[in-house]
Amino acid sequence: MTTTPEHRMAARVPVRLSADVRVGGQSIPARTRNLSAGGVCLEGDLMLPEGEPVVVSMYLVVDDVEDATRPELEVAGRVAWVTPEDDEQWILGVRFERLSPQQAAGLTRFLQVMGLA
User: Fold this and answer.
1) CB atoms within 10 A of CB 106
2) By the 8 A CB rule, do 83 and 89 touch?
3) CA–CA dist 87, 74 (Å, integer)
4) Which of 14, 72, 96, 101 has a C-alpha 20 to 30 A away from that of 32?
5) For the chain, what is the mean pLDDT?
6) C-alpha to C-alpha distance for 42 and 36, rounded to whole angstroms
7) Mean pLDDT, residues 43-62 taken together
């Protein structure tokens, strides 16, 4: 099922973070477009099928550099939708699955550090 804004349970906020998407033993670099407690919109060389299970690791970025003083946030999810942006770049939505209390707290911290929560 394709997720539309009407189906989302949590509001998404625009935020740019570095990310890695692990799928099938491969790690693909990406960037976030927006983020919520329920999922993330990513862009990059990510032509993945809807329903594909993934693990997304997100890193805080300060002045265009990953902040090594903050731990990454790693969350399991599933591709909810995918659309081409151009010949080599894709935009996809990932719905988070099995978000633990620690991951939810980490997500809240990410949004607070970015001044979004």
Assistant:
1) 19
2) no
3) 28
4) 101
5) 83
6) 12
7) 90
Torsion sign across C-alpha atoms 61, 46, 13, 109: negative
Structure tokens of 91?
Answer: 């935009």
Instruction: Give the per-residue pLDDT at 66.
Output: 62
**Structure tokens given for 100:** 């633990």
Counting beta carbons within 10 angstroms of the beta carbon of residue 2, is it exposed (0 to 12), middle (13 to 18) or buried (19 or more)?
A: exposed
Report the amino acid identity of residue 108.
T
Can you list the alpha helix ranges (DSSP code H) found in the chain? Answer: 101-113
Tokens linked to 49: 């099928």
User: What domain range includes position 48?
Assistant: 5-113
> Looking at this protein, which amino acid is placed at residue 75?
V
CATH number of the domain that 47 lies in? 2.40.10.220
> Given this model, what pLDDT does residue 96 score?
93
What is the model's pTM?
A: 0.81
Number of domains in the chain: 1
